[in-house]
Write a structure and sequence with these properties.
elongated, 278 residues, two-stranded antiparallel sheet, alpha+beta
């Protein structure tokens, strides 16, 4: 078993993945010991040294802005539309599963909005679309501002791409497609797209990192509740949402500035703004 763990390290699996594999094995052995299948779990206290470090799921706003600016120098507005929607925090499969009927544009108080319904996920195992990760993942997000323009453009562009292939698009067709084939992008193509932008910009970004980035930005906003972010991301519980946040420089500065609104710090002494008492 030690040799097996060593082979996983040599195969450059992630350290956390090896721990997970070992954890499953320990559960099996402990169960066997409790039920007298074996006398003792001889695999306890295994030390796991090595393995690839987990990817850092942290992104500063300045780095994200630079990454997106680089993308705009490299790609068409249609691809930028895909990236802008990806920055809303949905899962990669949800982005690729977005259909024409999942968008509803409307105007309220002279402001244009779009209701985005997340109902379908396209993954390597379900390229034609399947169910979302859990029941809570089925949700609606409302957006306004520039993202509405990008969504309208993506709809118009992809419909033309279908028609150029002599296909009459239906409401159930996917929005983000390869224009050359009029078929939905393969998930691996999205990863390659992100990798190319990351290589040129010098900022490493993957689709799931944008989900962490959105969660961190949202939860660091004092006017946004944790529950609202949980529903936006489609998490089952608030603990999952909290696990998506990261301790960024921007978050630290924002925290300090929010505290400063309520307290004045002079020579290391905290004083309340209201009455000036210590």
């Amino acid at each position: 078993y030690e040799s097996h763990l060593s082979s996983l390290v040599k195969a450059n699996l992630a350290h956390t993945t090896i721990h997970t594999i070992n954890g499953i094995m320990q559960s099996i052995m402990n169960y066997a010991e409790r039920n007298d299948v074996i006398q003792k779990n001889m695999l306890k206290s295994m030390d796991i040294n090595g393995g690839k470090a987990a990817k850092e799921q942290k992104l500063e706003k300045a780095d994200f802005d630079h990454w997106m600016a680089t993308a705009k120098e490299m790609y068409s507005k249609y691809i930028i539309s895909l990236l802008e929607v990806a920055s809303l925090g949905e899962r990669r499969g949800e982005l690729l599963g977005l259909r024409f009927k999942d968008l509803q544009f409307f105007t309220e108080n002279d402001t244009e909005f779009c209701k985005i319904s997340w109902n379908v996920s396209r993954t390597p195992e379900q390229l034609e679309g399947g169910s979302l990760k859990n029941a809570g993942s089925v949700r609606q997000n409302y957006v306004s501002g520039k993202i509405v323009g990008y969504l309208r453009y993506a709809v118009k562009y992809s419909k033309l791409a279908y028609e150029n292939k002599d296909i009459t698009p239906s409401d159930a067709d996917f929005i983000f497609i390869n224009p050359d084939t009029a078929k939905g992008y393969h998930p691996s193509q999205i990863n390659r797209l992100f990798n190319k932008i990351s290589k040129k910009s010098g900022v490493s970004v993957n689709p799931h990192l944008l989900r962490h980035y959105f969660a961190t930005q949202a939860l660091n906003n004092p006017n946004v509740s944790d529950i609202e972010v949980m529903h936006w991301l489609g998490h089952k519980n608030i603990q999952m949402t909290a696990s998506y946040t990261r301790d960024t420089k921007d978050a630290s500065i924002a925290l300090y500035q929010n505290v400063q609104r309520d307290f004045k710090v002079i020579d290391g002494t905290k004083q309340e703004k209201n009455n000036g008492t210590a």
